Amino acid sequence: MSEKTLVGIVMGSTSDWDTMKEAAQICKDFGVSYEARALSAHRTPKELEAWLADMESRGAQAFIAGAGAAAHLAGVVAASTILPVFGVPIPSKYLKGMDSLLSTVQMPKGIPVATLAIGEAGAANAALAVVAVLALNDAGMKAKLTAFRATQADKVRNAKLPELN
User: Fold this and answer.
1) Do residues 103 and 71 lie in contact, with contact meaning Cβ atoms separated by under 8 Å?
2) Per its UniProt entry, which superkingdom is the organism in (predicted)?
3) Is residue 163 assigned to a domain?
């Protein structure tokens, strides 16, 4: 039997990959198995539902969902599973991602979507949040996350400001 796929990364269209690849990269860096798909809550709802069910049957522990404009992919994912869902608002052409942020964060009581920042930082942080959840029951993952955080702190401690001319 193959290894479980722990994280499902879903985006509304292939054009969202430039943002969502940040989540995939963090998963890869931490050795977290993932599957990334472009599926639309509005254009391919049946395929999305089937994929979510399949991911759960293969051991998924969380989903990261990114969508732009007023698309509500993360909300549809959250309504379809009891697993944690981390929403990533994708920058949009006209409202620069504010529409994406509001449609992702403003969920009705009882169907949570943990919503991250707009864009690449949000995608990376969504994956880091999933890593933190996985680290609750995985000592190896906890050690990797602790080391990552220490490296982040070292970068700040070792940073040098430019000299004035």
Assistant:
1) yes
2) Bacteria
3) no
